[in-house]
Each structure stands twice: as structure tokens, then as C-alpha cells.
Design goal:
homodimer, Formiminotransferase-cyclodeaminase, Chain B, domain 1, 2 domains, 9 helices, 11 strands, globular
Chain lengths: ~300, ~300
């Protein structure tokens, strides 16, 4: 069975009826199932997570984008999170029986259709990127909606992969890509010194010489009198959770600070946790198909 | 969805056609699926693992017992493993949407039917036991087939829970019970000193004052020049893997011996590995429903 996850982000986090309408479009496709929906009023943004087969997720992502273009006007959108369009970003994630290459194909197919049929400029990103500088979403979003609107027609650097080199009148532009599942992993430190969290974030993150697949920031958690290293692990196979955790532990020790605990926010692939157990138990030759639930799914 | 696992052991590990015939009976029940089958010629014993709904596993266990009574003659059986009957033991294990209490009911229903319809004496064990001394299978199997045959008609202590107080002419007797999933967990030590493995086995196992849900023995692994603490963890919720592993690590250190690695043999419930990851990462508030694959199963 082929399962692809799709996690589109929409520039609407306040009007529930708009998000409901978008979710309805997604669920109107047979075989597509909703995993999660989150609305953030401060960011004025929502994140919808759904799964389905390759054709199902393609159709659902397209319908959602079409509906968002009808209901969201980027000229009026305000929110803290960087964004370039009504459907800001559409990542496709391989879950089961599907390769990353297939997800790249899916992203390109959907991107082409959004460009041609909806006349929304589309930028391919991460694994689906056609140019190295477009792997990183931050580069595509540079200047956000307002900045891109000024540049897109005149700067050849910002020509989209699909669709017109001109912002859609209401929907702006959209980034479509393929990526590994993200893990949101936070480590809490027994100190109120935010500088320590920031230093450790710099030690682990790619940008400052740390692990290739770690994005990290240091935050205060005032209500608990602690600080936190808040991370996105963007490839748990190549930069596993336990390696990041052990480095943070070593760095924290250097400041005489203990780790109070950690958190995984949202969903985490079973494999990522199996890898943690294997590391600490020093498991030899363990195969994820030995997990009872995997075996049961296989035979049912 | 209700899923029960059943892991009957049959006193035949050499004649493939006999085990095939038993497996066919099991799979003749609608909705029942085979997870695993193992034949051990030295023990002259086979272990079949299957799953299904409550009614399906009951019917499949009954049909398998009936077939085994036709094809296996305990008067001719020789093998290293302790046994009392053709179908030696039938444990039911709660997997999903089913409580231990329901598995106890299932064990009693199947045991009653085997006793009445097949005229095989049945002893209820572990969670299904009707007397404390029958919780432990070793007590029920005392004297094995030959010893029980001598005592069953005269010793009231050995009166079965169901069926006649008289061995079935070919099939002997059967133990039927309910239990948690077992985890076969081995830890390999970097020494050739078997005494160290034996001492550590005594430290961790219930029998000598160790953890309540651990059975352990020390073995040599000659081909690797190591020794092994070989264990069955009989309740991973109450005696979790990581706690056993950490104690073995501490005990091994006391002899200056390092842990080379560990192994999980066969299947392991996802929850047991999630608990390991949670312990070592010091995870706060992690819910197993955050595992992507669980979430996907839930929505599909």
C-alpha cells in the first residue's frame, strides 16, 4: 500500500469557516484521510495534515489550493509567520511504499497543475527543487508576499518553476516540495539563563556548524523557570534523535546544567523511536518488522 | 478493532506435514492471520503465532487442538522441552481493543470446549488460573506428560479445570491461559566467564529476588567468545526493558565487564520500545498515539 503525507500551510489562522471549507475540499477526494489540523491566530496560519495514495493526495492538494485562492486575499493578510501566498507551502512526504523520488514527481505534477490551471506562480523546493538555492524555503520566501510581488516580474532570479511570472491577484505564489517527515523535538534545561539555550542551539544546528539536519533556537519557558532548545529535525535517518540529544547533554554539562526533560511535538515516525531504543539498548540486528504492530499491519 | 494474539505450542517439531495440517486448520477460520511459525527439531516442538478477533481465535485454537489430537501421539513423543500434551499450551494475548479480562474469558471458553468436546483435560494458567499455584506453567507441567499421566486420576491436586481427570489417549493434557506479550531479550557480555552471566541472571530474575516479570539464564555463546544473559520479560509494562538493561549494565560493571550488545528475538510491542526511547530521552508527556504509524492506522 502506498501512503503519502501532505502538510499544506494556508495563510488563514483566524476564520474557522475558511479552514473548514479547505478541509472539506481535501476530504472530498476518495481515500484521503485527515491526520491533523492546527490553526494559529498569531501567525494567522493553519497547517493541515492528510494522507492518501499518490493520486489522491495530488488531487486533494490541488482542490485545497483552488479553494484557498477563492477565500483568502493576500493583499489583506497580516501575520507573524513568513508567507508568500494563500496556500503558502505544500510538502509531500513519503510514508509507506513510496520513495522520495515518487514524492518529487508528485510535487512537480501538482506544481505544474497549480501553475497552469490556477495561474499561480509555483516554486519547487527541498527535494523537488530545480536549483540548489531553492532547496531552502527561506530563500524562496525572501521578502515574503510583499517583496516577491515587487520582484517577480522583473528579476529573472525569481522566475517561478511553473505558472506565470506574476503574482496571482489574491492567492500570491505557492511553494511545492518533497521532504522527509519533520520531527519537532525540544530539550528543556534546568536553568533560567537563556544564553545557555542559545549557545547550545548554535552548537547543534546546521547553520552554525552543527548537524546537517537540525534547525534549532533557544527560548525561555518562563512559566517553568527553564530554557529550551527548540528544534526541527529534518532527516531523522541521517541525523538521529539520540545523537542530537547526546550532544545537547554534553554541551549542557559543560555549563553545569542538567536536562530536565524533552518533548516531541506532534507526530513522530516509529522508526525514529526504534532507532533511539536500538542505540541505548545496543541492539544488534534489530529489524523494524519485528515490531508487533508492523507485523500485524503487514498480515491484515 | 479487537485483536487477540494466540501462540499455541504443539509437541511436534520434526514432521512438517503435521505442522502444516495444524496451520491449515487455524487458517480455515475467517479473519484469522498467521504471524509466525517456528519448528524446533531438538525440542520436537513448534510454536504457531496467529491473530484475529475474539471469536476467530477461539475457533482457530479449538480446531488446531482437535487436529493435533488426531496427528500427535504423546505416548511416542520425545523432546527436550517440558510438555504435557499434543497441544501443550495455548496462551491468549491482548493486542488491541481487548482487555486482559476478555482474554481470560476467551481462555476459559476455549478450555471448556476442549475439555467437553475433545475429552482432553485442561488446566487454566497465568491470568486465567483458578488457583494461585496454577499461575505458573511449571507447576502444571510438573512431572511432564509421563508424570501427570500417573497422578491425574488419583491426586485431587491435579484435577483439571475442564474435561475428564484422565489423560486423553493420544493428546494428553493441555494448558490454556491468558498473558501479556512476552519479550525475548538477551544481553551479550564481553567475557568468556559463564559464571558472570549466571550471577547476573540471578540478580535480575524473579526467582532469586530480582524483577518480578523477568525469567533469566546465563549461557555461553562459544562462536563469539562471549556469554549471554538470556531473558523472557513477561510484563514489559511493569518491568520495562530499560530497567532490566540498566541493572545488567550496573552488575556487569561490578565485574569490569562491558556489554557487547543486546538482541530482541521475535516480535516486540511498539509500546515497549517507545518506553525505552521515552526513558533515555527523558520525554515528557509523550503519548503513543503520536507515533505516525499508530495515527495512520487509526484514521484508515
Amino acid at each position: 500500500m502506498k501512503i503519502v503525507e501532505c502538510v499544506p500551510n494556508f495563510s488563514e489562522g483566524r476564520r474557522k469557516e475558511v479552514v473548514d471549507a479547505i478541509v472539506s475540499e481535501i476530504l472530498s477526494v476518495e481515500g484521503v484521510r485527515l491526520l491533523d489540523r492546527e490553526m494559529d491566530p498569531d501567525h494567522n496560519r493553519s497547517v493541515i495534515t492528510f494522507i492518501g495514495g499518490p493520486e489522491g493526495v495530488k488531487e486533494a492538494a490541488f482542490r485545497a489550493t483552488k479553494k484557498a485562492a477563492e477565500l483568502i486575499d493576500m493583499n489583506k493578510h497580516r501575520g507573524e509567520h513568513p508567507r508568500i501566498g494563500a496556500t503558502d507551502v505544500i510538502p509531500f512526504v513519503p510514508i509507506e511504499g513510496v520513495s522520495m523520488e515518487e514524492c518529487v514527481e508528485i510535487a512537480r505534477d501538482v506544481g505544474r497543475r497549480i501553475g497552469e490551471e490556477l495561474q499561480i506562480p509555483v516554486y519547487l523546493y527541498e527535494e523537488a527543487a530545480t536549483r540548489p538555492d531553492r532547496r531552502d524555503l527561506a530563500n524562496i520566501r525572501r521578502g515574503q508576499y510583499e517583496g516577491l510581488k515587487e520582484e517577480i516580474e522583473t528579476n529573472p532570479e525569481r522566475k517561478p518553476d511553473f505558472g506565470p511570472a506574476k503574482m496571482h491577484p489574491t492567492a500570491g505564489a505557492t511553494a511545492v516540495g518533497a521532504r522527509m517527515p519533520l520531527i519537532a523535538f525540544n530539550v528543556n534545561l534546568r536553568t533560567t539563563d537563556i544564553e545557555i539555550a542559545k549557545k547550545i542551539a548554535r552548537a547543534v544546528r546546521f547553520r552554525n556548524g552543527g548537524f546537517r539536519y537540525v534547525k534549532a533556537m533557544g527560548f525561555e519557558i518562563k512559566e517553568r523557570g527553564m530554557v529550551q532548545v527548540s528544534m526541527n529535525l529534518t532527516n531523522y535517518e541521517k541525523t538521529p534523535i539520540y545523537r542530537v540529544f547526546e550532544l545537547i547533554k554534553a554541551e549542557a554539562e559543560r555549563y553545569g546544567v542538567a536536562i530536565a526533560g524533552s518533548e516531541i511535538i506532534g507526530l513522530v515516525p516509529m522508526r525514529a523511536l526504534v532507532d533511539v531504543a536500538s542505540f541505548y539498548l545496543r541492539l544488534e540486528g534489530f529489524d523494524p518488522s519485528q515490531v508487533l504492530e508492523s507485523k500485524i499491519r503487514e498480515v491484515l
